Amino acid sequence: MKFAGYLENKQPLVWKTFSHAFASHRLAHAYLLSGEAGAPLKETAFFLAKSILCDHPDPLADETCLTCTRIEHRTYADFIFLDGEENSIKKDDVQEILGDFSKTPLEEKGIMNLFATEGLEPDLTLFFDIKPEIGLARIAANSGREVNRLDVEKLSFHNQVRSAFQELAKRFPKRYFTIDASQSPEAVYQAAYNEIKARLKSCLKRCRRRNACCRNKRSS
Ligand SMILES: [Zn+2]
């Protein structure tokens, strides 16, 4: 059962408050959730975060889109989770979060920006595309590799991430260059090298042309 179902049936007051707040676009800047031991407070907080960022809110989170999934897995860059159960929340933690509020968000809704770009866009994004099944099998076969948080995600998550990047590659065909990463490492390297070299060449040509223009202007 989705968490929305639980909330609607077991906590109808909370459900109503949230539904009304989202439907009328009147969210408070903070919510304090309190309940008896065992009450799903963390789940409620996560659900609230999903509802704010969900790709298809109605008016609350659908709990199935890529953004909801990433919040659930804590891989959404602008979602910060401080667990007071694991560690006591210190003043420094709060100050760090306050500092984060003033920064540019790392995420654009529905689009994964894995790096803080400060408003700059890369000239070239190499997209190493591979079926998640093949990628995960390669990871499993490589016993010396340190396991990271993404390795343990379900196949459905990896498929969603792949679709999001394929969508970005379609949307920005000039910037994105897709490389079939199921090839041998040498072939993948060669494809990346050729593309970077070709881009640098045309970039150099443009610079030279521009310089020539500048010189012409100065001499005229
Ligand atoms: Zn969603």
Task: Report on this structure.
The chain is mainly α. It folds into 2 domains: 3-101, no CATH class; 125-219, 3-Layer(aba) Sandwich (Rossmann fold), CATH 3.40.50. It is built from 8 helices and 2 strands, in the order αααααβααβα. It has helices at 3-10, 12-23, 41-53, 66-72, 91-101, 132-141, 155-171, 185-219, and strands spanning 125-129, 176-180. The radius of gyration is 23 Å and the shape is elongated. The N and C termini lie far apart (75 Å). Zinc ion is lined by residues 50, 54-56, 61-62, 65, 67-68.
Question: Which key phrases capture this entry?
Answer:
mainly alpha; binds zinc ion; Rossmann fold; two-stranded parallel ribbon; 8 helices; 220 residues; 2 domains
Provide a compact summary of the structure.
This protein has helices at 3-10, 12-23, 41-53, 66-72, 91-101, 132-141, 155-171, 185-219; strands at 125-129, 176-180.
Write the layout of secondary structure elements.
Blueprint lengths: L2 H8 L1 H12 L17 H13 L12 H7 L18 H11 L23 E5 L2 H10 L13 H17 L4 E5 L4 H35 L1
Bound molecules: zinc ion (ZN).
The site of zinc ion has 9 residues, from helix 4.
